[in-house]
Structures are given as C-alpha cells and as structure tokens.
Amino acid sequence: MDKSEHHIIKEALMRDYLASERTMMSVDRTFLSYVRTSLTLFIAGISLLKFFNTFFIHIVGWALIPAAIITFLLGVNRTLGMANNINQRATEDGYKIDFPQSIVRQHLYSLTIFVKNTLREIYRLFLPSAHHVPKNQT
C-alpha cells in the first residue's frame, strides 16, 4: 500500500468518525430541545396557577404540568432509543465505538437528579407544610 492509498483510507475513517460525532451531537441537541420545551410547559403551568384565579386558567395550568412531565419522559425515551440504535448499527457495521455507550445516559442521569431536586424545591416552595420542622422548635 503506497502513501496515497493510506491517505485515502485515513481520510475516509476521519470522515466516518466526524459523521458519528455530528450524529451524537444532534441527538444531544434534540434532547436539549425536549428539556427546554418541558421546562417551558412546566413554568407556564405554574405561572398560570400562581397568577390567575379563573377556573378555566387553572384547568389549563394543571394540564400543562403533566404535559411537561410527559414531554420530558418522551425526550428521554427517544434519546436513549436513538443512542442505542446508533451504537447498535455502528457495532453491526464493524466500527469500534471509541466513546462509552452510555455517553447520553450519563448526562440524562445527572439531569434527572437535577430535575428531581428542583421539583422538590418547587414543591416545598408552594406547600409550606412540606418544610421539615424539628420537634424541639415547635
């Protein structure tokens, strides 16, 4: 194999590697869009509940909160499914995956912990009885 053939093979491998990186970044970008949409729905629902007193607005506000949760879960499900699909196809085509298979799952796990803690704090904000009061301070 001469230098020109070696250069062509190296160039093709680099192109495939960069294409896989672009694909994984697009999966991450799509997931972040789901997160942004779900947070917007959640904040809109809380805002409607907090600032308006009409019955219809309260129904819309309470409907937006589960919609936000469903949107987030849908985004997690689709992101993990797409990442697994990409990794499976790469393995079937004989490519060695040089990044951890759980690269998206690690971010999702961190984000899930963040969202859980944030929701817990919002819950405590809206429900004063949810605050923990030690027995000796009553």
UniProtKB/TrEMBL annotation:
GO CC list: endomembrane system
Pfam families found in the cross-reference section: DUF202
Transmembrane stretches, start-end: 31-49, 55-76
Main location: membrane
Keywords: Membrane, Transmembrane, Transmembrane helix
Lineage top rank: taxon: Bacteria
Lipid bilayer topology: Multi-pass membrane protein
Keyword Thylakoid: no
Subcellular location, record wording: Endomembrane system
Domain DUF202 residue range list: 27-81
Stated name of the protein: DUF202 domain-containing protein
The organism of origin for this protein: Candidatus Roizmanbacteria bacterium RIFCSPLOWO2_01_FULL_35_13
